Backbone:
């Protein structure tokens, strides 16, 4: 499996590729940020996406080999991996002339779906995904049942076209409630919700699974790998000290060279 920046053979294959460059080139930055300007996704998603794509493809190739006995040559590029992720906005652009706008912490194609400031200064994010939820939101959270079929608000596309007016109504309601009160009422209305957390909040989040990893400077607690096998806690090998495996790697290389020489 070969991992490239822009792949092999295309017109941009000669270019160097770093995460932010690929985010920009694939249009990801154009749909990330606010109306004031584009932004970089806060983690290196192009690197991660390419690695996950390669991992998935390798597993697929191994399974294919197990069944057919045939191996495979796999090529993955950072550009292709994230371009694949861009299918939704590209298809919307190509086939419905829909232009995905940068919406900050709001969904670009669903309304209401985003973060709103509560009376205590904390932000709560919630989502309305269908008509039933819209009715519940108006009746149980906004206490405004007349809005469910009001002109400009009756369906999602209308609400997208009148988002500033809708946001004004929603912001007023949130400003009357604390974060805790808002989440209680959203739950009572059967809506999905969460907090707009900072890094410090996720660091001490009660739902985060942690795993201890040994390092030359002592153990650290990192966020655990996402996959859980057979309900077991993951056990990760320690981070090696500088040079810890040098001799073992050299011995492996020497053995490989001797085996190659003997076969020739």
Residues:
């Amino acid at each position: 499996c070969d991992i490239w920046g822009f792949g092999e053979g295309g017109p941009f294959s000669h270019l160097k590729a770093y995460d932010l460059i690929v985010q920009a080139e694939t249009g990801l930055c154009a749909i990330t940020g606010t109306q004031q300007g584009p932004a970089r996704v806060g983690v290196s998603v192009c690197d991660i996406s390419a690695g996950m794509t390669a991992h998935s493809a390798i597993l697929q190739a191994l399974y294919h080999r197990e069944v057919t006995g045939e191996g495979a040559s796999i090529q993955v590029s950072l550009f292709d991996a994230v371009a694949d992720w861009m299918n939704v906005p590209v298809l919307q652009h190509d086939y419905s002339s829909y232009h995905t706008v940068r919406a900050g912490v709001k969904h670009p194609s669903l309304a209401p779906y985003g973060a709103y400031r509560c009376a205590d200064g904390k932000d709560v994010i919630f989502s309305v995904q269908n008509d039933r939820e819209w009715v519940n939101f108006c009746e149980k959270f906004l206490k405004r049942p007349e809005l469910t079929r009001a002109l400009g608000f009756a369906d999602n596309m209308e609400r997208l076209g009148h988002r500033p007016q809708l946001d004004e109504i929603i912001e007023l309601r949130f400003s009357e409630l604390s974060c805790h009160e808002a989440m209680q009422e959203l739950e009572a209305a059967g809506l999905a919700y969460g907090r707009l957390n900072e890094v410090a909040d996720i660091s001490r989040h009660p739902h985060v699974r942690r795993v201890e990893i040994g390092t030359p400077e002592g153990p650290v607690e990192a966020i655990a790998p996402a996959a859980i096998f057979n309900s077991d806690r993951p056990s990760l090998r320690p981070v090696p000290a500088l040079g810890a495996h040098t001799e073992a790697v050299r011995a492996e290389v020497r053995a490989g060279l001797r085996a190659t020489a003997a076969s020739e």
About this structure: Residues 209-264 form one domain. The beta strands are 2-4, 33-34, 37-38, 75-77, 113-117, 123-127, 192-195, 210-213, 220-223. The radius of gyration is 25 Å.
